[in-house]
Amino acid sequence: MSRVDGVLFDVDDTLVDTKAAFAQALAAIRARYLPDLPVDREADLLSHWRTDPGGHYRRYTRGETDLATQRYDRAVLLHRTFGGPPLTRADFDEWDAVFWGTFERSWTAHPDARAAVDRLVAAGVRVGVLTNAAVDLQVRKLAAAGLPDLPVLVGVDTLGFGKPDPRVFLEAADLLGTAPGRTAYVGDEPHVDAAAARRAGLVGVWLDRPAHRRGAGYGGPGADEDRAQDPDMLREQGVEVIASLDALPGVLDLR
């Protein structure tokens, strides 16, 4: 028998290559607002945005601020850190159009995502999405990335807070219609995703993509040290560790 009846996926940097999309968006910001910053510093911009040093996205996932405010606050900090011009609220609509427009146009799925979902469905496993972003946003993102059939069951706006709170994992499993102990959660952040799911009673799976080890997921809270956790230590905590979604059926014992 399979270990699970259902699999819940994270979206950003698990199914969708959000890191690459952010890189494109921040390259557009550098060209428009930080023209004196060398092109080879774009990697620093990306790391700053994804590690969220001001903790603004973390406050959003705890229900302490709204989406637009956290993005504005992160933009202000980015400019301050890299020598950009002061960014006022009046300026932000134009800034966000450059950033967000480029970001949306850059959404693509990871090459292993479609096949992994199809194999689970073919094995009779229920699939769905639990995300720390808004439901409508992730529905659009998955559709643009070629995964429109994946239902987004729980977002940060569903309960007013997100991962790593155990209640969001239990709510998603309930909506998927599977018992927590027979439900896997697959995500690219070791603690916010996999370890938190394990603590909630699910099967936690950390997707440790080698190319994505530096920086957190979509505005996620884990700085580089979160990604640098020893996989063996996580395995000792009962977390499964895979380097590609191609390995997911094997750790879930799908037959």
Question: What does it look like?
Answer:
With 255 residues, the chain is α/β, with parallel strands linked by helices. The protein folds into 2 domains: 6-17 and 108-251, HAD superfamily/HAD-like (Rossmann fold); 19-105. 49% of the residues lie in helices and 10% in strands. The protein contains 13 helices and 6 strands. It has helices spanning 18-33, 42-51, 56-61, 67-82, 89-105, 113-122, 135-144, 156-159, 166-176, 190-199, 224-227, 231-236, 248-251, and strands at residues 6-9, 126-130, 152-154, 183-187, 203-207, 240-242. Strands 3-2-1-4-5-6 form a 6-stranded parallel beta sheet. Helix 1 packs across helix 5. The longest helix is centred in the middle third of the chain and has 17 residues, at 89-105. It is elongated, with a radius of gyration of 18 Å. The termini are close together. The model is unreliable at 214-226 (pLDDT under 50).
List keywords for this structure.
255 residues, single chain, alpha/beta, 6 strands, Rossmann fold
Outline:
The protein is α/β, with parallel strands linked by helices and 255 residues long. The chain is 49% helix and 10% strand.
Write down the overall geometry. elongated
Q: Could you name the CATH homologous superfamily of the largest domain?
A: HAD superfamily/HAD-like
Tell how many strands the DSSP assignment holds: 6
Find the structural class using helix and strand composition. Answer: alpha/beta
- What characterizes the major β-sheet? 6 strands, parallel
